[in-house]
Amino acid sequence: MSYLGVGDCLGIAPAYHSRNLKLLDKRIKIAELVLRFMILGLGVVADVLIGTYSQVKMFFSFEKEAKFTYVKALVFLVVANGLAVGYSLIHGLHCVVSLVKGSVLFNKPLAWAIFSADQVPFYI
């Protein structure tokens, strides 16, 4: 075991050997909060860019404007991205409340619910 509290577990992956679970929990929540709000920001930027972009093409003397609503896949993308942004906002607010309240993340039913909600979109 090293002096930082991080050692090798069977030589494969680093293991955390500290007994201070509240500090570890706080670090995990902060990292998760940063990632959730990055997802939220990038999702909003993507939705705004796709939603506001239009292209005008001249064909002889006719002008034809193309919008994202003309392609069903882009409409689906905007809706799915909006749902991901909403979920990230809700879960990010949950992280903020749990950081302020000081509750511990190691609650098995809540952890399984969060994990399942994170996995469902990828397997549907």
In terms of topology, how is this protein built?
Layout (H helix, E strand, L loop, with lengths): L5 E4 L3 E4 L4 H32 L1 E6 L2 E6 L4 H30 L6 H16 L1
Antiparallel strand pairs: 1-2, 3-4
Helix pairs in contact: 1-2
Radius of gyration: 22 Å
- The number of domains is 1
Chain oligomer state: single chain
Specify the structural class: alpha+beta
Helix tally equals 3
Widest sheet, order of strands: 1-2
The tally of strands reads 4
Distance between the termini: 42 Å
Order of helices and strands: EEHEEHH
Low-confidence stretches: none
Describe the structure concisely:
The chain is built from three helices and four strands; from the N terminus they run E-E-H-E-E-H-H. With 124 residues, the chain is of the alpha+beta class. It has one domain (20-123).
